[in-house]
Amino acid sequence: MIRDMAAGPRVLLKRLRELMAEPLEPQERLDRIVRDIAANMVAEVCSLYVLRADSVLELYATVGLNPNAVHLAQLRLGQGLVGTIAASARALNLSNAQEHPAFAYLPETGEEIYHSFLGVPVLRAGRTLGVLVVQNKTMRHYRDDEIEALETTAMVIAEMIASGDIGRLSRPGLELDLSRPASFTGIAFNEGVGLGHVVLHEPRIVVTNLFNEDSDEELRRLEDSLGSLRLSIDDMLERRDVAFEGEHREVLEAYRMFANDRGWVRRLEEAIRNGLTAEAAVEKVQSDMRARMMHMTDPYLRERMSDFDDLANRLLRQLLGRGPETIAESLPKDAIIVARSMGAAELLDYPRDRLRGLVLEDGAPTSHVVIVARAMGIPVAGQMKGVVSMSENGDPIIVDGVEGAVHLRPQPDLEAAYAEKVRFRARRQELYRELRKKPSETKDGVKVDLLMNAGLAVDLPQLAEAGAAGIGLFRTELQFMVASTFPRAEAQEKLYRDVLDTARGRPVTFRTIDIGGDKVLPYFKGSAQEEENPALGWRAIRLTLDRPGLLRTQIRALLKAAGGRELKVMLPMVTELGEIAQAREIIDREVRHLSRFAHHLPTSLKLGAMIEVPSLLWQLDELMQAVDFVSVGSNDLFQFVMAADRGNTQLADRFDTLSVPFLRVLKQIADAGLRNHTPVTLCGELAGKPISAMALLGLGYRSISMSPASIGPVKAMLTELPLGELTAFLDDNLAGPAARLPMRALLQAFADDRSIPL
């Protein structure tokens, strides 16, 4: 007679379901669970070890071992067979446990008489919460169906641990691993410190319905949902209105590969036949897969782990009939978003007044979502590997956007220290707010325009709050980056009019659309082509001159929005003067078109160029005479002058922006502007840090543009700066041989000697 291999697990799960429904105390429930497992598997021992926050596995329940050892017997993570299972997240099936090199004898348990051993990790979202063990005196290998039964039971116990029910059994001062503090070190993407509670950007779906009533019905549900999932992926890959090329396509191809993988589907079906619902089967297989992949060293396979997680979550949503969750729903007032990665538009969906920070497993300082977060003024830390799987919604969390660190479930003393940091920063911000009413002048009376960078409607209120003299750089491409299709001319015009209305006569410089390179618009096929060196490629003015329809539409929207006011337009990534002439021709054509139809035109139109490409350094005088103003894009200019990719973390600290060669370059530009009577502004990271802003003023810059949050600290430096002394100091140090000491150190000493706050 053929034995039904799934009958054992089904009977066990049915018994567990009954136990979960009974009103029992946690210890009694655990004791009865291990008894039922032992009876079902004809085992003489069944034991549950739970992982504590101090990385110790504590015996929480047993049948067959000494009952007095419960809550006393302990093994460190990695110690003994149980510790090895917890550390590796892999099952162990041994016919003679005592011969295994990791075997550790605990006299208090009395387990020396047992030989065969089967232990499985208790996993949740790939994270080990404990170990479940069965043992027998006879030497035997446990069957595959018995391993599956024990793993399925372990999943149920994992949910009990996660619910907090078992935590009540912990002794005072000993927390379970689920609440263990964890710290992560990565990269600071935007300054600031945020204390709050975790909001997972794509929250794990918590499966509450674990046990099935009808395996055939659950298999049908799985098949239907897999079919819908595969169709949706195929549809995305076949759509022609979206440029799914490069990385976009690779991710979707990985999704399709997993969705059609027979091994994955077989494991799901097997879990259902063993008594789980379809969604519980997905949760179990996802957790098993994540635990195994987390211990792989191959970086490619580890990257695929997030693809698999995303796909499994999509399948769970299909099974449960859930669409995208309403983001603002039940969002805490101190939300810190934790995500593997996310789009800029997705961040804008969150209510700004509730956001305290953003944590990314991936990302780069120049990624779109980071640019938007910077504009919103929230601290951001990225490259925090593993933070998503370790986080639960509602966990206390600290994001340190200064040091590039994240502290999950922090200890009270660490939380108190960071709370004091936040209070200190708030006191400093209050001082900066008081400075808004003071003139923006140096100690010796030289006026300096402190402007702000912007790019979205959410930036506009900060113009008044920061006390900026105007907007020195309005990045028009951000509107394109956060949209799902090209913004219509009417939408562009409305944004530009709102910007000018908010400015109330203060100057605003609009940079024409700067896409291409690393700023790929998924709906624009032309910008999605792969380039070996995207920063040096088809981008900015190069792209818009080749696609003049883009530039014409934008110029027309700007001209109409600025009717009756001054309009300042700046061209990015200019390499040669001929590009300015071509752009001016397009602008003149649009002016003639609108005049013909009696549109209200700007009172004056000033055209400027960004100095980012080093070739302009050898045509500075001609450039200054060809335009009404120039702006130095210090971020790109520095990377091109130093041949150092600004997105490469290995080069991040290799070259100093305050080095003598680069300061000499910046001085050349300032001097050229002065002798040609052409206004020069610098907008970039240099302008936003007090020490480098001080250097810029000494070089001759009288207009600098920065993030709104930087205006206060820079103004505090400015009002204490004796500019005449600094100019003479820099002239001396830049004119002769390169300084013996680094310029940064010399500037710091200059400020320290004169009590200038940096």
From TrEMBL:
EC identifiers of the protein: 2.7.3.9
Entry's Gene Ontology molecular function annotations: phosphoenolpyruvate-protein phosphotransferase activity
Domain GAF as annotated: residue spans: 25-171
Subcellular location: Cytoplasm
Pfam families tied to this protein: GAF, PEP-utilisers_N, PEP-utilizers, PEP-utilizers_C
Broadest EC class assigned to this enzyme: transferase
Matching SUPFAM superfamilies: Enzyme I of the PEP:sugar phosphotransferase system HPr-binding (sub)domain, GAF domain-like, Phosphoenolpyruvate/pyruvate domain, Phosphohistidine domain
InterPro entries referenced in this protein's UniProt entry, alphabetically: GAF, GAF-like_dom_sf, PEP-util_enz_mobile_dom, PEP-utilizing_PTS_enzyme, PEP_util_C, PEP_util_CS, Phosphohistidine_dom_sf, PTS_EI-like
Reaction(s) the record says it catalyses: L-histidyl-[protein] + phosphoenolpyruvate = N(pros)-phospho-L-histidyl-[protein] + pyruvate
Cofactor: Mg(2+)
Keywords from the UniProt entry: Cytoplasm, Kinase, Magnesium, Metal-binding, Phosphotransferase system, Sugar transport, Transferase, Transport
Annotated family: Belongs to the PEP-utilizing enzyme family.
Designated name of the protein: phosphoenolpyruvate--protein phosphotransferase
